[in-house]
Amino acid sequence: MRALGAILAGGQSRRFGTDKALAEWNGAPLLTHCAAALSPQVDHVVLCGRVWDGLESVADRPEPGLGPLGALNAALHYAAVHGYDAVLTVPVDVHPLPTTLRRLLDGPGAAVLDRQTAIGWWPTSLATRLNAHIATGARSLESWIALTDARRIDDTELGLVNINRPDDLAHLTAAVRDVPVLRVAYDNTPGAAIDRSVPVEAPIAIEYNGIGYAVMMGTPTDLADFVTGFTISEGLATLAELTEPSIVAVDCGWIVRAELPQRSTPRILARARTRVSESGCGICGIDSIAAALAPLPPVTARISLPRAAVARALGQLRDHQRLGRATGATHAAAFCSVAGDIVLAREDVGRHNALDKLIGALARHGISSATGFVLLSARSSQELVEKTVRAGFPMLITISAPTSLAIDRAREAGLALAVIARGDTMLIAHDPHRSFG
What we know:
14 helices; 8-stranded mixed β-sheet; 7-stranded mixed β-sheet; alpha/beta; nucleotide-binding; Cytidine Deaminase, domain 2; 3 domains; Spore Coat Polysaccharide Biosynthesis Protein SpsA, Chain A; Ubiquitin-like (UB roll); cytoplasm; 23 strands; globular
């Protein structure tokens, strides 16, 4: 099936204030990100509603100013004339666009994402019908979705941000970062270099009454909400007793400061005295963040891993998840040989606990961590990367996505890191010694 990708970019950007299509995110215009996300999924990409160097432009039909329906009508007409079977549409102002949209939407008839309905899959056979629908005076995309009985696909897990205002773009910049990765198959065919959007992970130091209380790793958005909820859940103060948090960006992370009532001081001081993860005095958030990002020892172990070994280990993992099969609520950490056989595995409701258990089991059994790789049924976070490095493993593979800080720390230490490992492919985020064959 030949598919046409269509970027809908005819809006006026009134709420944004300037041309949002050219607004930069991660060093490139939003239009560039749209084209980069669509290109691997379709046979050709066109731009609807405007002109821009590097993309073929098509004018809205039958006239400008008809919103998404005019742009979609233009794309379907182009597809019919040029022999495409379907059109995959994306608006210029919704990001980060996954490179799995076609697979998510493909199926019988039309389909749209449930909350971002401008992202849709439209058979070219609908072109004549849409033209007639517009001729009746219809302008609503929802009316067209209802008329075609389009399937609505759940998109709550995609984390899409609709960029209507500059604040939305600032939120996206703080929350998401593109990193280069290599998508490879296990059959050793050449891989494809792509950009992957990962959630930003950064240290967030929390200070109460000028005293460092905790350093948390998280996505630095909605920090006032985060610290308010943290304060309440820790039992330190009520909402009425908490001052509006002050948020300060520093070189390595963020500091959030708030004032609490006098009655909270003993608990704050007790926590400050018993912290063991911070080398600073606990009064300065910058010291706390520096301690949280202390230098990692370099990875010295080396292994060479046939890609097929990853598929083999994934195929065995479920057999080692007794608690997971029974409850569906635990994570597994497995130590695998270079042939892909699982040597030891441990489970826990917490992914960090599962990895700690595995590290301890290997030590008690006298098995060298340098001789294989770790496979985790979890996302790749900064803490898991650091535990893997400090335990002496040369490689970490996770079945879910990484955070930005996880990739940064893996690269800093020289840890081979692969993520989103599936039965047929995985993404290599870092491979300093060509360990993956």
